Amino acid sequence: MMNASRQNIPVTAADRVLQEMQRAIVEGDIAPGSKISEPELAKRFDLSRAPLREALARLERCHLIERIPNAGARVVKLSTAGLLSLYQLREELEGLACRLAATQMTDAEIAEMQALLDQHLSTQRVREGESYYQEAGDLDFHYRIILGSKNPYLINILTDELYHLMRMYRVQLGMNGPRVSRAFDEHKAIINAIANRDGELADLLMRRHVAASRRNIEPTLLEREQTGN
Amino acid sequence: MMNASRQNIPVTAADRVLQEMQRAIVEGDIAPGSKISEPELAKRFDLSRAPLREALARLERCHLIERIPNAGARVVKLSTAGLLSLYQLREELEGLACRLAATQMTDAEIAEMQALLDQHLSTQRVREGESYYQEAGDLDFHYRIILGSKNPYLINILTDELYHLMRMYRVQLGMNGPRVSRAFDEHKAIINAIANRDGELADLLMRRHVAASRRNIEPTLLEREQTGN
DNA sequence: CTTAGACGGATTGTCGACAATCTTGTTTTT
DNA sequence: AAAAACAAGATTGTCGACAATCCGTCTAAG
Fold this sequence. Notes:
2 copies of one chain form a homodimer. By secondary structure, chain A is mainly α. Helix content of chain A is 71%, strand content 4%. Chain A contains 9 helices and 3 strands, in the order H-E-H-H-E-E-H-H-H-H-H-H. Chain A binds a DNA duplex through helix 3.
């Protein structure tokens, strides 16, 4: 019904440019607020402006750049208001995803997630503090629940349109705090609620989980704001 | 922060093609499921394929067409599953919009909406049965509340990405039922809750309002499905 | 008879160049 | 001196043509 895969194998040149620019913007390789020059980027990626503009259109779609007709595109700037708006939406949507997943996920999918969580937990205990694995595990957890909702529009919004922007906030604000161990317990509680087919509880727990994640990076942004970026 | 205006004045050729194709698809002028031929459309609109492809990219963004790399685009097909998924999301998002609007809208904005509702109510009584005015009034009501949330991402999703698809379902399934008068009462109750700054109640009422709207077109789609479109 | 492979036609993806528009710095006018 | 008008430069939007890929059909082998 719809392209819902997060990691699409790049088949076209525009796909490759899109992926590389997503990475570059999310990781701050291209500074927030900086202007995007089409001729410059075309030269840098060694291709024509046609596929580049296709990539820019998709970057706009996931809110990483902002375009103005006849005036060009700029990389998005992080802001407290933006973070708040983004997480307001994310709490609501991931909560909904949990509620739907509680009735839509198959027993097999649930069992697989529980097994994966236990596996992640053990590797996390071994490599304490390695936030990379935590990061990947966390993303995979949320990703599977979102897919479990079986709602294509919801999946599209969360995995294609808001996902990269959320990563941008987390990466640029250095989300590697002491939540590593607590997040696992919260994940476990959520998947248990889904296994019990308790959508209401799963919804509630996920909203709290997302809210906790927001509160974890909020102070960083606030202090950054006071120092004038 | 973001382009959040629903009726953007078309400044570029791609904008004009986009608007015309949105209308054509929503109103069924181009049959659901039919293939989109770029050369054919370019000839029909008398322009090159470059702005046409830009328009197609945006049509995909609002879920009116589906593209497959190197294989072309097809107009989206209506389905019961799609309608259900769409309204699941809409209930959640418009409910959230209400909750936010209850704290974010200014007194002036609320007063203006109340005045507009009374005005619509009187004209509706005069032109009983004219569903066009009801349609426009209903859209305007929802549109203003969505804007009132002041959340740019929420606004973008509802007014740019899901709006046209919702219209497509309503138009093609002939949403002109006997809900005309009841909708006004529900609108009135919602705006009153917002005026009282009662976000929880406004949220609840809006979810019910959207659910009622869904139940109004659901049977039409079901019977259509049985007769094999 | 079924299935694998190749060929032809059409469609999509990409390219380089031109035209329209905006930005910036200067000049002119009030 | 401040504001408006103008001009140069650069950037975006659009065009027509070429290259790469896919779809359907036919042929040929098992």
